[in-house]
Design a protein that fits this description.
Shape: globular
Largest sheet: 7 strands, antiparallel
Structural class: alpha+beta
Number of helices: 16
Mean pLDDT: 96
Distance between the termini: 40 Å
Bound molecules: flavin-adenine dinucleotide
Number of strands: 21
Strand order of the largest sheet: 15-12-14-13-19-20-17
Radius of gyration: 23 Å
């Protein structure tokens, strides 16, 4: 017999045994975030396999005032998919809603369920000779629903936009259990408030995304990367202008890696090495792509890099000739992320300022951090073409990880205040979740926070969706 308070038992009756996980060992991976910063507990993990089942789950929780934490691939970096520690909530995993419903090459669109892994969406598009351009380090694990809920950025934003720009329509389960099918694929629709856009980037606080109609693009027939060595951020930014002026329409990625971040990656991640005979102040990894095969882009890229070399903007550059060598360059970029994950306590910032202000931001923040905690290792890298820098700090050798973490709030305040002085954003692509909610209250205009609260209560008057996140 299942008692009224045996929530996992009731969920099993309603949704089937496959849909419910409540054994502590099996639940563990859903209760902790990717960085291990947040740990929560929950009554159960519920894994519905259809939008109607998600709707039934939402009604079940609404009737009992049980909080729901929507969860995709659980790769978010701000604790948005981790439940609270009191064990009162249910984690609603979208992992079983994982079908590609349709691919329409003529329309350059596809419809995917929310639990599809991003890499599978990319592959489904590629099989139809189309490109789904969203690409990020977690693409083998994160889900398209999570990408939409966080309005993910990644390495191709410069050319194709954020996730927001890639969504044509959504299927959403609202907080009262209504399934809103807005899976239309039109590119133009000026019929009032763009409500769908509110859901994109809402981090599970306004509704549960169960499927999406996505924009596709022509599949590139040539893709060419270059790694350029430069003296520092000023030259990296100058190279950006030069490249954009001359071949901007083909540039899909323009990534900055400080010399310090690369040095740390080489030190920490086995097998990481640079293709240059000496270290440099910074590096740029840029990539061009085109749907045509001829003429080759390499010649144009070499010409621009040649101009940059002559003009002392860059010191050296390599253009890999094979696909293996191209992907080795991207592994270097990924090694930076990995080194900062495993290399000890780090304090991370995901900020953006106008591209032209990046050098001044990096200088101002560097001076202020050095004054506040001398010897802190400052390891910035990121999507320079979007003005989005991961301004990450690792502890000075003389202090412990715990002591360094204790400095976190004050160092973060310093960085975010400088970002604000440049008119930037203190969370460019990772969202607010739990980690940045207080900063949003501190740094966003009160009128904007108040509007967010009103929108939240219009969508979710009972307050069951992702409590304590974002607003
Ligand atoms: C190695 C690595 C590299 C990364 N690189 C980038 C990068 O370049 N750019 C970038 O933007 N991010 C990056 N991220 C962060 C992360 O991958 C993205 O935020 C991603 O979009 C999260 O997707 P997810 O499926 O893992 O979502 P989760 O972590 O499961 O959830 C994230 C948020 O979305 C909500 N949510 C999830 N699914 C749904 C749904 N179906 N309906 C409603 N709400 C939902 C959750 O409640 C939570 O608030 C990276 C992370 C890692 C680990």
């Amino acid at each position: 017999m299942t008692g009224r308070n045996d929530i996992p038992g009731l969920l099993r009756q309603l949704f089937g045994a496959d849909a419910v996980i409540d054994a502590p060992d099996a639940m563990a991976r859903y209760l902790c975030d990717w960085r291990g910063l947040y740990r929560g507990s929950a009554q159960a993990i519920l894994r519905p396999a259809t939008a109607d089942a998600v709707a039934a789950a939402v009604r079940f929780c609404g009737d009992r005032s049980i909080g729901i934490v929507p969860q995709g691939g659980n790769t978010g970096l701000v604790g948005g998919a981790t439940p609270a520690g009191d064990g009162s909530e249910i984690v609603l995993s979208l992992e079983r809603l994982n079908r590609i419903r349709s691919v329409d090459p003529a329309d350059f669109s596809l419809v995917a369920e929310a639990g599809c892994i991003l890499a599978e969406v990319q592959s489904a598009a590629a099989r139809a000779n189309r490109l789904f351009p969203l690409s990020l380090g977690a693409e083998g694990t994160c889900q398209i629903g999570g990408n939409i809920a966080t309005n993910a950025g990644g390495i191709n934003v410069l050319r194709y936009g954020n996730t927001r720009d890639l969504v044509l329509g959504l299927e959403i389960v609202l907080a009262d259990g209504t399934v809103w099918n807005d899976l239309r694929r039109v590119r133009k629709d000026n019929t009032g408030y763009a409500i769908r856009q509110l859901l994109i980037g809402s981090e599970g606080t306004l509704g549960i995304i169960t499927a999406a109609a996505l924009r596709l693009f022509p599949q590139p027939r040539q893709r060419i990367a270059a790694l350029a060595a430069v003296d520092g951020i000023d030259q990296a930014t100058a190279l950006f202008s030069l490249v954009m002026e001359q071949i901007g329409e083909f540039v899909s990625s323009f990534e900055y890696m400080s010399g310090a971040a690369v040095e740390f990656a080489v030190e920490i991640v086995p097998g990481t090495r640079l293709p240059f005979d000496r270290p440099h102040g910074a590096y740029v990894l840029a990539e061009l792509a085109a749907a045509f095969e001829e003429p080759p882009l390499a010649a144009a890229f070499e010409r621009v890099l040649g101009d940059a070399l002559e003009g002392n903007v860059i010191r050296d550059a390599v253009i890999p000739e094979s696909e293996a060598k191209r992907s080795a360059l991207w592994q270097l970029r990924e090694a930076i992320v990995e080194s900062q994950r495993v290399g000890g306590a780090s304090i991370k910032h995901d900020v953006s300022v106008p591209v032209s202000a990046v050098p001044d931001f990096i200088r101002a923040a560097g001076d202020a951090i050095e004054a506040a905690l001398p010897g802190t290792r400052i390891l910035p890298f990121g999507h320079l073409g979007d003005g989005n820098i991961h301004y990450n700090l690792m502890r000075p050798p003389r202090i412990s990880d715990d002591e360094f973490r204790g400095h976190g709030p004050s160092l973060t305040r310093i960085v975010h205040d400088i970002v604000a002085s440049f008119g930037g954003s203190f969370s460019a692509e990772h969202g607010l979740g739990q980690l940045r909610r207080a900063e949003a209250d501190r740094l966003k205009p009160p009128v904007e926070r108040e509007l967010m609260r009103r929108i939240k209560s219009a969508f979710d008057p009972g307050g069951i969706l992702n409590r304590g996140k974002l607003v």
